[in-house]
Structures are given as structure tokens and as C-alpha cells.
Specification:
By secondary structure, the chain is mainly α. It is built from four helices and two strands; from the N terminus they run H-H-H-H-E-E. The radius of gyration is 34 Å and the shape is elongated.
């Protein structure tokens, strides 16, 4: 009922009540408000119990669609489609392991173990041997 009322609003109401009613009448007003809220809650619970007694098992059948409607308050289309199509699997296509457009084939601790150019792990590609002392790198004929 008062789900949208936060502590800030409650504090403002208390301060406004303090100014309007004054410090001598504020405790009486708070007690009256608490009694009134309790009475309303008791009336609502009594009416619900009386309705449940009179309707019997049909009450639960009536209540089911109302609970379904209450569930639509938190309607999230992505969650509903995922749940319906993939039985609730959050990652049905296995896309969570893909980073920077390349699959994370190296496993490990979340680091991207791909070389970024062809999607293969860096350890799978043939690594050139290091140059020996005094050796020059080969000249690439396409570089000119």
C-alpha cells in the first residue's frame, strides 16, 4: 500500500505534523493513526476470511488469476521470453564466454587468451623462433 513512500517522505510528514499539530498533540495523533490503521487492517483480514469461508475452494480459483496479474507488475520481456523458450537458461547459446567478438578458448581466469586476429588461442598458432645473436629479421616482400 505504501511501497512508494520512503524514509525521506516519512520524515517530512513527521516534521510537518510537528509544526501543524505541535509537540503536545503529535503523540495523540500518532496513536490515533496507528489505531485507525490497525482497525482497517483487521477489517480487511476479517472480510478476506469471511469470503474464504463462504466461497470455499472456489476462493483459491478466484485468487489465482489475481496473483498472476500481480506477477505482471515485474514484467520483464527478456526474462519471460528466455524462460518460455529456453526453460529459464540465462545463457542458452553459450555467449557469455565471448569477449571482443572472439570466443574465450583459453579458459583461465577471465583473461582473453585469443590473439585477436583469427580467434584461435595464442598457444595454438605457430610461434616464430626468436632471433639468434647477430641475425637480422627476414625482409617481407609485401612490405614495400
Amino acid at each position: 500500500m505504501f511501497d512508494s513512500v520512503g524514509w525521506g517522505e516519512i520524515l517530512v510528514l513527521i516534521i510537518a505534523g510537528l509544526f501543524i499539530l505541535g509537540p503536545e498533540r503529535l503523540p495523540e495523533a500518532a496513536a490515533w493513526l496507528a489505531k485507525s490503521v490497525k482497525k482497517v487492517r483487521d477489517f480487511a483480514n476479517g472480510a478476506r476470511e469471511q469470503l474464504r469461508e463462504e466461497m470455499g475452494p472456489e476462493f483459491d480459483q478466484l485468487r489465482k488469476p489475481l496473483e498472476d496479474l500481480r506477477g505482471l507488475r515485474n514484467f520483464d520481456p527478456k526474462r519471460v521470453v528466455t524462460q518460455h523458450l529456453f526453460d529459464g537458461d540465462a545463457d542458452p547459446l553459450g555467449l557469455k564466454g565471448i569477449t571482443n567478438g572472439s570466443p574465450n578458448l583459453g579458459g583461465g581466469n577471465g583473461s582473453n587468451a585469443t590473439n585477436g586476429s583469427n580467434g584461435y588461442a595464442a598457444g595454438q598458432a605457430k610461434q616464430p623462433e626468436p632471433l639468434k645473436p647477430g641475425e637480422r629479421p627476414p625482409i617481407d616482400p609485401d612490405a614495400t
